[in-house]
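Per-residue structure
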Amino acid sequence: MSRALWFAAGAGAGLYAAVRARRAAELLTVEGLQDRVGAAVVGLRMFRDEVAQGRADAETHLRERMGVALHDTRELSTSTPQIDPPDQHDSHHDNDYDTHHDTHREAGSS
């Protein structure tokens, strides 16, 4: 009985090794590589579609919470802020900068 058990174990291991070797050789053929690339492309497309669906679901949920309709085209109103002309605003700052440096120059040269 012991010999039959070892024979079956050896035959099973040999069969397993042969199947694995055939699969590994198939992966390295042109058709095998094309199949793997094709599967990767399909996987990426499925991932992209899942992300797009999740984004759409999240947007719908957020719009429901905010009370905005799905196809509402309201935009945020932007008004132009009043800005001081650059020559009036910056000239005062530049004078402070020049005065500060002049003080240090005088102190360093003495």
